[in-house]
Amino acid sequence: MKTAVCYYSRHHENTRKVLEAMRAEGEIDLIDVAAHQTVCLEEYDCIGFASGIYGFEFQKDVVAFAQQYLPAKKPVFFVYTYGGARGTGAKAVQEIAAAKNCPVLGEFSCKGYDTFGPFKLVGGIAKGHPNAQDLENARRFYREILEQNPHK
Ligand SMILES: Cc1cc2nc3c(=O)[nH]c(=O)nc-3n(C[C@H](O)[C@H](O)[C@H](O)COP(=O)(O)O)c2cc1C
């Protein structure tokens, strides 16, 4: 199965670590939305959107990317990491997928080390995350996505 994941991961690259774990289960093209490239997602069997949670929501460039590039009816999945308050989680990208009639294959989230603002003063929260168990859960999640897809 040909999979691309469009992602934003800057704070501690927590989300990127999760995606790298998934990539151990099957090939995934990782597309950093902050690289400002033009992409064609038509050629993929399935598209993931992934982000750290910033200000209680998916990072806005990932949402804009989904709005601009996600083809109609393309199967999708969502991945995010958060420090402790996931807010609306993947809601913004879920809504875009729904408007484009894209079937949702699943959603994965886990905690990610967070030293934003006042949390830095206490050494951060969600220390050590994503941990080995989170990464194992991520691999299992992607195996299940692969099992759902007839193109594997
Ligand atoms: C500017 C900023 C805002 C954040 N806002 C939230 C938030 O609203 N809720 C939360 O749980 N974590 C928040 N975090 C923590 C991140 O979601 C968490 O560390 C995440 O794993 C970062 O992913 P990344 O390393 O892939 O960028 C914030 C971090 C930063 C830097």
CATH class: Alpha Beta
CATH level 3 topology: Rossmann fold
Q: List the domain count as a whole number.
A: 1
| Alpha-beta classification | alpha/beta
Q: For the terminal residues, how far apart are their CA atoms?
A: 4 Å
Concise synopsis of the structure shown:
By secondary structure, the chain is an alpha/beta fold. The chain has helices spanning 14-23, 60-69, 91-99, 132-148; strands spanning 3-8, 28-32, 46-54, 57-58, 76-82, 104-111.
Would you spell out the secondary-structure blueprint of this structure?
Elements: E1 3-8, H1 14-23, E2 28-32, E3 46-54, E4 57-58, H2 60-69, E5 76-82, H3 91-99, E6 104-111, H4 132-148
Parallel strand pairs: 1-2, 1-3, 3-5, 5-6
Antiparallel strand pairs: 3-4
Helix pairs in contact: 1-4, 2-3
Bound molecules: flavin mononucleotide.
Explain this structure:
The chain has 152 residues and is α/β, with parallel strands linked by helices. The protein has one domain (3-148): Rossmann fold, CATH 3.40.50.360. The chain has helices spanning 14-23, 60-69, 91-99, 132-148, and strands at 3-8, 28-32, 46-54, 57-58, 76-82, 104-111. Strands 1, 2, 3, 4, 5 and 6 form a 6-stranded mixed β-sheet that branches. The mean pLDDT is 95. Flavin mononucleotide (FMN) is lined by residues 9-16, 52-56, 81-87, 112-114, 116.
